[in-house]
Amino acid sequence: MLIILIVTAVRYHYLLAAETDEVRRHAATELQRAGNRLLPLLTALPPTTTDPTQVTAVLREGAASLGRNVQSLKWQAGEQPAVEVSPVLPADTAAAPQWLVDWVALEPPVQQFAQTAPDRPNARLTVTLRTEPMVSDIWSTVIVQARISALNIITILVLLTVLLRANARMLRRLAEATDAFRQGRLDTRMQETGTLESRAMAATFNDMAGKIQSLVLSLRDTQQMQSEQLHFTRQLIDALPLPVFVRDADGSYLDANRAWQQLFQAPPNAAAARGGTPAPAYPEELSPERSAQIAQAQDNEIRIQRAHQAPLYMAYYEAPFTSTSGALAGTIGTLVDVTERKRVQEALHAEKERAEVTLASIGDGVITTDLSGRIESLNEAAQLMTGFTAEQATGLQLDSVFRLYEEPANRTASAAPDRDSQTGALKQATYEVLIHRSGERYAIEYTASAIRKGDGMAVGCVLVFRDVTETRNLRHQISWHARHDALTGLYNRAALAERLTHAIFVARNKGLLLAVCMLDLDHFQTVNDTYGNRVGDRLLKETARRLGAFATASDAVARMGGDEFVLLLGEQADVPAITARVAVLMEQLAAPYAIDDRVLNTTVSIGVAVFPQDDANPDTLLRHADQAMCQAKSFGRNQMHVFDVQHDHAVQTQHTRQTRIAQALHAGELVLHYQPKVNLRTGQILGLEALLRWQHPEQGLLGPQHVLPLIEDIDLVVELGEWVLRQALAQMRQWTDAGMLWEVSVNIAAPHFHRPNFVQRLKDILHTCPEVSPTRLELEILESAALEDMQYMRRMMQSCQALGVRFALDDFGTGFSSLSYLKRLPAETIKIDQSFVRGILEDGDDLTLVSAIVALAAAFNRHVVAEGVETPEQCAKLLELGCERAQGFGIARPMPAQEVMGWARHHSDHHAAKAAQAEARRPTSA
C-alpha cells in the first residue's frame, strides 16, 4: 500500500508540473492571441481620440471575446491617460482548492504589446490573464486522473486480494500436505488444481514427495536387509563349527562365536565393553603379541588343555579386516581342530611299516623311484618278475631293470612323475610285455603314479605291475568270439562285412571277378525236428568244416545264422570258372554226413551275385545273392542260380515284399484290432491297445509279424505309423460319441519316433480329432529303442507330453535299462514283457523279475501293465505281486473295433455277476 501511495504521489507531482507547464503555454498563446486581436483594433482608432469611451468599448469587446481568462486589458497611448478594463470573473467558474492554488503558486500571466508609428504616439497594450481558470483547469485534470487512479488502485487491490487468498489456500494445502508427510504418510499427494502457480507447486511437491517416498522406502528396505544380514551373519558365525573370535586394531577382545565360547567355556557375554578389560577367553599363545607369529608360521599348531579333558591340538589362522574406508579395523582368528590329523599321522607312520610288510607279501610287483628314475625299492614280486634282487636293482635306472619289449620303460614310467606333477592323475593301466633278466617274457599290466610329499611336490614315482598272461589270452578269446560264429568257428556277420568290403576293393584293383555265394541247407528244419537240435548243430559244424576246407586263401566263409552260409570266391577269371567251382562245392556238400551212428544226406541251394557285373555295395550284393538263393530254392532245391540284374525281377525279394505292404496300406487292406487292458481287481476297462493286422486277399488275416519285419524303408515306416495314429484317433472319436472315454495305446517304431518333425506331425494329427483329449492317447515305445539315445528320447517324450500325450515303455525287462535310465525317461507306464508273465507260475526267475519290476514301478510312481496274461491263475499271481493292470488272451483277444462295445458290456455284466456271487459267499458277522 505504501508503494502505491508513493507511486501515486510521484505521479501526481509530475502531473501537476506537467499541467502547470501546459497551462502556462496555453496562457502565453492566449496572451499572443489577445494582443494580435486587440492591437490592430486599438491602432485603428484615430490618434487624436481623447475619448476613453471608444478605447474602453474596444477593450470590453476584446475581453468579452477572449473569455473569462482575461483579468485586465490596459491601453496607454502616448501621454494619454491609460484605459484599463477588468472583466468580472463569472460566478459559475469552478474554484480550485486553496491548497492547490498555494501548491501551484501561479503568477498572473502578463504581456505588453507596443505600437510604434511615425505618425502616431507610442502606444502600449498590456494584457493580464487570471490564474483562477488556469488552476481550475489543472484541478479538473487532477480530478479526472484521480478517478482513474482510484479505479486502478481498487482493481489492483482486488486482484491482490484474490491472489493473496489463492496463495493462502495454496500455502494451507501445502502446509497440510507437509504435515501429513512429516507424520509418516508418505503416499500424501497434492491435487494439481487452481492457478498455474498452484498446479506447478503441487506438481513439484508431488514429484519431491514421490522421490522422498522412494528414498525412504529404499532406506527402510536397506535397513531391513542390513538388519537381516547382520542377524544372518551372526547366526552364520554362530553356526560355524570352527571357533572364531574378533579383536580390534589395538588387540582388544571384541566378540567370539558360540563354538569359541563352548571351547573355552566362556559365557556369552564374556567380551567386555569396548574400553574395558578384555575377557581372557583365549590361551596365552593367542595374545596379540604372539598370535600373528603363530598364524604366519608353517607350524601353526597350539596345544589347548581343557579342564578334566584330553588336550586338543588346534591350527590357528588369522586374517585382518578393514573398515569401509579401508583402514585396518582388527583381526579375525579361528582355530581348526587337527587332533585327529595328528592321530592319523601317527597311524600312518604305523601303517607305513605295515605297508612295507604288505608290499613284500602281495602278488603285484611294486617299484619306487626318485625323480631321476633311479630305483629306490622293489618288492619280492617285482624281484621275481624282473630277475633282479633288491640289492642289485637299487640305484639302477628303471629302464635297465623294468625292460619292456615294445617301448622303453623310462619313456612312460620315469616320465610319470613329471606328468603327475601337473595333473596328479594316475597313469591308466597299460598292457606291455616285460622281459625277465633271463630273457623270459611276461604279459603285464602296469600303472604309474607320482609319489608326493605333504606339500604336493613330486619326489618320485611308484610303478605297480602284475602278470596278466592268462588275462590277455582270455581277451584274445573274447576278441575272436566277437568276429566268429561260436558254433562253427566261421566268420560272423560283422567280420563278413569287413572281408566283403576288402574283397570288393581287391577285385576292383585287380580287374577280376568276385562271387558272393549265399548257401542254405535244404530241409534243415526237418533234420532238427527229426533228430533234435544236437544233431542239427553237428550237421552245421560239419558243413562249416567242408566249406573251410573248400575255401582258398583268396576266399572267405561266414555263417549268417541258422542254416545260411556265405562263401566269397575271390580273384575269379570269369563266370564259367565261378559256376564250375560252385558245382564242385555242391558236390562236396551233397556227400553223406556221418553223425554219431546215423548217416544224413542233405543238399544246398546256392545263390550267386558276381561283382563287378553286379556293381553294387556290399549290402546289395548280399541281398542279390539272397534273392538268387530264393530263386534257386524255387527251382526245386539243390540248385545254383547266378543273379541276373536284367532278368530276375520275378524273384520275391525284400523290396517287392515291402512294395506289396505299401500297396496293402493304400488299398485299405490293413486294419486295426484292439485288445483291452483291464484292472484285475475291479474289472474296470482301462483302455485298449491298437494292434496292426493285414486282411490279405489271399492268405486271410495276418498278424504284425507278416508286416513290420519286412519294412526297411523309413518313409514307409513313418507313413504306416501316422496311418495307425489317425485310425486310432478316429475310432476313439466314435467311442467318445458313444460315451466311452477309453484310452488307446499305439505302438510307435523307433525310426518314426526319431524323425525331427515327429512332434509337429503328432500335433497336426491330434488337431484332426479335437473331440478326443490328447491325454487319452498313449504312445508305446520299445525299451531297447528308448535306450539308443537317452537325451534325445527324453527331450522328444517331454515335447509330446507337453501336448498331453502319455508314454509307456513296451516289453520292459528285455533291454538293458538301469535305474538311472528309468528315472530319466518320463514314461508314465511300464509294460512287463509277456515272456516273463508266462513263466511266473513255474519259473522262479521270471517270478522274481516280475516282482522286481512291479516294485520298481511303485518306487518310481509308474503304472505297470502285465502283457500276455492267459490264465486266471496268472491273474491271481499278478494281484498277489501288486500288479493290478493286465492284458492278454486270458482277458480278451484282439478284436475288430465294431466288436469292442459288445465285449465291454459282456465283460461288465460278467464281472458284476462274479462280484455279487463273492458278496453272497462272504459270511455275515453275528
Q: Which structural class do you get from the secondary structure elements? A: alpha+beta
Please give the order of strands in the largest beta sheet: 22-23-25-26-27-28-29-30
- Ranges where pLDDT stays below 50 over 5 or more residues in a row are 270-278, 408-425
User: How much is the average pLDDT?
Assistant: 83
Largest sheet: 8 strands, mixed, barrel
β-strand number? 31
- Ends: how far apart? 116 Å
What does this structure look like?
With 926 residues, the chain is an alpha+beta fold. It is built from 29 helices and 31 strands. The protein has an eight-stranded mixed beta barrel. Strands 6-5-9-8-7 form a five-stranded antiparallel β-sheet. Strand 12 (430-435) and strand 13 (441-452) form a beta hairpin. It is elongated and about 205 Å long. It starts with a helix and ends in a 5-residue tail after the last helix. The model is unreliable at 270-278 and 408-425 (pLDDT under 50).
